[in-house]
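Subject: two folds for Thursday's group meeting

Dear M.,

Sorry for the delay on this. The cluster queue was jammed most of the week, so I only got both jobs back this morning. I'm pasting them in the order they finished. Each block is the input sequence followed by the predicted structure tokens. Could you check whether the formatting survives your parser before we put anything on slides? The first protein is the one we discussed after the seminar.
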Amino acid sequence: MTAVTPPAPAPSEPPAAPGYRTHRTLPLRVEALRQLKRRRTLVIAAILTLLPFVLVVAFAIGGDPSSRSRGTGRISLIDTATASGSNFAATVLFVSAGFLLVVPVALFCGDTVASEASWSSLRYLLAAPVPRARLLLSKLTIGLLSSAAAMVLLPLVALAVGTAAYGWGPLQLPTGGALPAGEAVPRLAVVVGYLFVSQLVTAALAFWLSTVTDAPLGAVGGAVGLTIVGTVLDQVTALGDWRDFLPAHWQFAWADALQPQLEWPGMIQGSAVSVAYALVLFALAFRGFAKKDVVS
């Protein structure tokens, strides 16, 4: 009788290296220091810090902006810019929300993975070994934190510069009336928070493009360009109610925070649209990068 040879045992996974832990690869502090030391981070910080000083000089040369609206019956945030430090901070946010704040968000989130690929260091990071999901999560977290820091830096500097130039006082509202200085600061914080949420679409778009291209400029420029396209489409009134599904349609919904009574519906709807788009784009980035053949 022929003896039956038992099947060979399946090969087991090689044991992990001593001390290796997936969650400890590419720590956030390491990635944060790397991004903080980069020249583009310093340039963005310098631009956002200098902008309030430039506007103060512009108002000093051009005179009181409120004088231009007298007799027209129409008052905007620009007209009340020199009324107080809080008014100046609100004006700085108004003039920068449409484009200037889009650039650092696209830069910090679009220059993450693509820059590693352009430096030919991406494959070495993955061979460390850093799991792909961990790599993306670390870079996305630092990109979003850097974007949030940029959005907080601008109004803080503007509030300090405006207070030094125009004094500490109530926030004069374009619709009439004023908010006490103690209430104006929380309202400005609501504005900054909404601006960050509304820019999640740009951040997610830049991050997704960063995972599909090896050109950082392509990812950043693509995100900025598509954001501009969305703004242009929002101006096409023939689209009717379809514009409600465009993130750009809600980019100035934060103005509802600068009313005598804080209004939430517009900001809630705008946040919902922005978060929905962002989640889809983030999912595409993680799914696509997990299957990508990294050769750079």
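Second protein, same layout:
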Amino acid sequence: MLLSSLDQSTEGHRHRGAMHGHSPHHRQSTRTLPLKVGTRGSPLALWQTRHFLELITKVCPLLREVKAFEECVIATSGDKIQDKRLADIGGKGLFAKEIHEALLDGRVDFAVHSMKDLETELPPGIVLACALKREDSRDAIVIGPDCAGVDRDDPYACLPRGALIGTASVRRQSQLLHARPDLQVEIIRGSVQSRLSKVRAEGGPQASLLAIAGLKRLEMAHEAAVVLDAETMVPAACQGIVGVTVRADDVELRELLSAIEDGEAAYVSAAERALLGSLDGSCRTPIGGHAQVMPDGQLLLTGLVARADGSFLLKRKLWGAKAHAAAMGRELGESLRRDSPADIFG
């Protein structure tokens, strides 16, 4: 079926696509419908996918009218194995491995991801086509019945001395233990809902940390006892950003997706992913990265490297022009690596 409105729908958005190397030449599509969208099956992943589809059909209403999209839920290795840290089973790329295999062999046309779960180096033949507007990037503490009340002046005061905190994130663990070395940490993974149920269960961890973006998207922000500012706990690179990947040679879809890319999200994600890439960080390395476009248009990038036990933590900032986002990420990453103990990256 012919998607005759692709040219019109992408007009005026070519400058956004330039960050991803999109061709300026528009073509009329002869693609067969429906277009298949690869996604994980968690409630949050499905919300993100449906949000993406809502945006793309607003830009090109014809696609909505002809029911142009089909969700394809793909079980990933990261979802199947819930009792181990990602670092112990192959890294965060396991949340995208099977989805990208389906993309490369043509079973799906594009894939929707939490961008913080994407590898910094995508598989050959796959590109990041667009970044959607960032939700709140901060982390939140969710607490069980044994925790104390909230103190606005001390975000960790709600956690009793020696409390058991559930998280599989070494980034969260390292910053938490640096501030509160009395705390204990155990691994919990799974969906937002399953983590909340573990905190509420008798004998489970007394608290956990989650991205407030996920809670907001699932209309569960009320579950957050404390939202930690990005200075108190530096977020994960690209936390709160949804990214869409496509085949590198699919110029048509890359052009269409450039129409919904958020310019600010493109800049901050470029900086944060470059920071992560220059540190060559794995899931074993506690790394935080957070970029903001300031009111004067400058980009402020914060980077963090730590030991998982919190015994070492180095945090630095860099200001610069947002057009140099990726270069800023590399520069700050190299600075952090240069002044950190070698064992952190072992």
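Two things I noticed about the second structure. Residues 1-29 have pLDDT under 50 and may be disordered. The longest strand covers residues 298-306.

Cheers,
T.
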